[in-house]
Structures are given as C-alpha cells and as structure tokens.
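Appendix B, example 12.
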Amino acid sequence: MTRRTREQMLDETRRLLLDAGRQFFGTVGYAATSMDQLTDSVGLTRGALYHHFGGKSGLFAAVVAAVDAEIDTELDQITAQAPDPLAALAERGAAYIELTQAPEVQQLLFHDAPAVLPHAVETSTAACIASIARLIEAGQTAELIPTTVPPEAPAVLINGALVDASRWVTAAPEDQHTERRRQATEGARVLITGLGGR
C-alpha cells in the first residue's frame, strides 16, 4: 500500500475542513458555527484549522470563494455554448437564479458573506459586473445590443436585479416557490433579451 505524502495529507485535511465548513456555515450560519464542533466532526483539531485557514473567518472566506467558483464555472459553460453574447447573457441570468436557490448558497452568499466579508463581497460583485459588461460589449460589437449606453451601467442593473430575484424566489411561500422560480427565470430572460430591443 502506497503511503500518502505530507502534501497529500495536507490537501486531505484542507478538503475535510472545507467540506465541514460548507456544511456548518451553510446550515446553521456563520455566527452559530462552533469551531470545536466543526473540527471534531471530521476528527481534526483547532490547530489544523488555524494552520490552513488562520481561523473561523479564513475558513468561511475559503468556503464562500469555493461556492462562487462553482457558480462561475457553470456560467462560463453556458457562455461557451451560447450562440451569441446576448443569448449567453439571457441564459446566464436565468441560470444564476437557479444556481443560487440552494439554502446553503443563500445562507453563505446572501446572508452571512456581506456581514462577515464585506470587502470580499465588493470584489466578487465587481467581478460579476465586469463579466456581464464584457458580454454586453461583445453584444454591442456584434450589433446585437445598441451602443447608446456604456456596458457598465446595464451590467450593474442586471447584476442587482438577479441577486434580488434570487432572494425573492427563496422568500416565496412553499406552495408558491415553483411558480415564482419560473417567473423569475423567464423574467430574467425577457429583461436581458430586451437589451437587444426585441
């Protein structure tokens, strides 16, 4: 049997902490998460946590970054498969609402991150706006979107609308959730496609 290298053991420890962090933070929230309970749940010590992440907030930041990266990967795949930039924007908007409906994502990204990691959230938001703006600019270059407004302004509006739409769907009573989700995703497509004046 091959012995694991020190690097492999460190990677495994980091993964265990990230998985536990995602479960605890996403379920009970940042404030209610006990670091002792979290590390005990995976048979580790606080020392391992501090070694890899510097503490509770460092682990939380890594978990949020991982969730953000997963969503970005999904959205990038949609962009790559879309026939044009405007279609990519519309499908990405609808997908964003779907991808952020999981309770853990709502807890991590929308409830706790703005309070715990305000600067990181600002950076992430700026990156999202820049990504949308690049697609709008590509749509303008392809003459699919009018050039009367610089890309950043509609990008800011779209980003804010999608975040609010995701929260709106989540806040729906259980018996209305499916219909509200449908309305939000279709509304996102209509709103964004309207950039093309169609």
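The radius of gyration is 20 Å. The chain has nine helices and no strands.
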